[in-house]
């Protein structure tokens, strides 16, 4: 299981904007700070804006800022919005489809379910503000 690079950058953009507080940040500044091209930033920013994580501010001092409080955004919120629901195996999807019709007796089903549940719990339990706070306390 691997997150898409756009999901990784979406997390980094949201973290960066959360660190700026209510300050409006330009696309050029965020792209430079995160080491991404301006065009790539705009592609990801457009999606996370549409998803409600950031908002744009128009005008000569315009740019972007966080649309929600950092305490109200978890890593799971971002990952799910960018990737879709987390499902590490087909048998764990809503329909419970098993190509072998062995879900009740499958030896690995329980482990896969546990891994998936723990991954979701860990991502859901990690708020953007927690990551910022941890970073401040480490320096």
UniProtKB/TrEMBL annotation:
First and last residue of the signal peptide: none
Superkingdom field: Bacteria
InterPro entries, per database record: Tscrpt_reg_Rrf2 (IPR000944), WH-like_DNA-bd_sf (IPR036388), WH_DNA-bd_sf (IPR036390)
Residue stretches in coiled coil: none
Name of the protein described by the UniProt record: Rrf2 family protein
Native species: Lacrimispora sphenoides JCM 1415
Lineage: Bacteria, Bacillati, Bacillota, Clostridia, Lachnospirales
